[in-house]
Write a structure and sequence with these properties.
Blueprint (H helix, E strand, L loop, with lengths): L3 E3 L5 E4 L5 E4 L6 H18 L7 H10 L14 H14 L4 H26 L4 H12 L2 H8 L4 H15 L11
Antiparallel strand pairs: 1-2, 2-3
Helix pairs in contact: 1-4, 1-5, 3-4, 4-5, 4-6, 4-7
Length: 179
């Protein structure tokens, strides 16, 4: 049985199944709200701190590949190059900078992967604060930050991977097994 004791305001102590007491912020902080805030902060930081495009692979090959689809047929580019082609044409239609639009798309995909990773870790039992710290650490890691801001295909793959892991993870009500 779960018990909780009020401690002046929204802070509560809750006992879990093993009897250990954990500090909770109660109904003030919803997990979904925290996941959206964490993903938004991650997207904002990635966008504000993005460097100028300097990666030749991301800036030249994918841009060219968007117009000559058969020139850049590496296995991990098969989804990315047509995706870039659509983004570039949409950006040109709305008279936006095409490379900025692709860079923004990578940033948003990385933030969305952070959102799904947050929800996955919450389902596995981590608290909001620890999960937010982990997601911010993940998003601000040098390689992921680089891939998110340099028009690389990897944010799309990271997004698909986080979706796959979220699909394969057990529901929150089910106990985790050793296998």
């Amino acid at each position: 049985a779960r018990s909780s004791r009020r401690m002046g305001g929204p802070l509560t102590f809750k006992a879990n199944r093993g009897g250990a007491r954990t500090l909770s912020l109660g109904c003030l902080v919803n997990s979904k709200v925290v996941s959206i805030l964490t993903a938004s902060v991650a997207a904002g930081l990635l966008w504000i701190l993005r460097p100028a495009l300097y990666d030749g692979d991301g800036c030249v090959l994918y841009y060219r590949g968007a117009f000559h689809l058969l020139e850049n047929l590496h296995p991990h580019h098969l989804v990315w190059v047509p995706f870039v082609w659509v983004i570039i044409h949409l950006a040109r239609f709305f008279r936006l900078d095409p490379m900025g639009a692709v860079q923004l798309t990578g940033t948003l995909m990385t933030a969305l992967a952070g959102f799904f990773t947050f929800n996955l870790l919450r389902r596995l039992g981590l608290g909001n604060l620890l999960t937010s710290m982990f997601v911010m650490f993940m998003v601000s890691s040098p390689w992921l930050w680089h891939f998110a801001t340099q028009c690389q295909p990897y944010p799309l793959l990271i997004l698909f991977t986080s979706l796959l892991l979220g699909t394969l993870a057990p529901p929150a009500a089910q106990e985790l097994s050793a296998w």
